[in-house]
């Protein structure tokens, strides 16, 4: 029984903790119609983000600029502390593109 408890505790520790992250504005280029959002997480975290909040933030910015909508363009993950093989802090950057011609 003790071995089972030790095994379960070790498994939970290795799996990491689920953490909820919020998108924050990272960068924007109104002329190009692009918005970048980001969040950071640490080595043993299992980040969960609200995808709807990300697209709604991008849509709101695009509408402020006169565009009708936004669409996810791409995502990048960069090591902020360490090397890719042994990184202790990651930065995730997601880019959105404003769609079509500006609303007139």
List the helices and strands and how they pair.
Blueprint: H1 2-15, E1 17-21, E2 24-29, E3 34-42, E4 45-49, H2 51-64, E5 70-83, E6 86-98
Parallel strand pairs: 1-4
Antiparallel strand pairs: 2-3, 3-6, 5-6
Can you tell me about this structure?
This protein has 104 residues and is of the alpha+beta class. It has one domain. Helices cover 27% and strands 50% of the residues. The chain is built from 2 helices and 6 strands. It has helices at 2-15, 51-64, and strands at 17-21, 24-29, 34-42, 45-49, 70-83, 86-98. The strands form 2 sheets. It has a 4-stranded antiparallel beta sheet with strand order 2-3-6-5. The longest helix is centred in the N-terminal third of the chain and has 14 residues, at 2-15. The protein is elongated, with a radius of gyration of 19 Å. The mean pLDDT is 88.
List keywords for this structure.
104 residues; alpha+beta; two-stranded parallel ribbon; 2 helices
Q: Count the strands? A: 6
The largest sheet has its strands arranged as: 2-3-6-5
- Termini gap: 70 Å
The number of helical elements comes to 2
> In one word, what is the shape?
elongated
Q: Give the overall pLDDT as a whole number.
A: 88
| Global Rg | 19 Å
The SS-based structural class is: alpha+beta
Report low-confidence residues grouped into runs of 5 or more: none
Number of domains: 1
């Amino acid at each position: 029984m003790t071995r089972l408890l030790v095994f379960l505790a070790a498994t939970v520790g290795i799996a990491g903790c689920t953490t909820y992250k919020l998108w924050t504005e990272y960068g924007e280029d109104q002329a190009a119609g692009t918005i970048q959002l980001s969040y950071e997480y640490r080595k043993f975290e299992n980040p969960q983000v609200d995808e709807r909040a990300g697209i709604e933030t991008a849509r709101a910015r695009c509408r402020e600029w006169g565009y009708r909508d936004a669409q996810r363009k791409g995502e990048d993950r960069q090591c902020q502390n360490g090397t890719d093989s042994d990184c202790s802090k990651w930065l995730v950057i997601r880019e959105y593109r404003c769609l079509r011609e500006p609303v007139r």
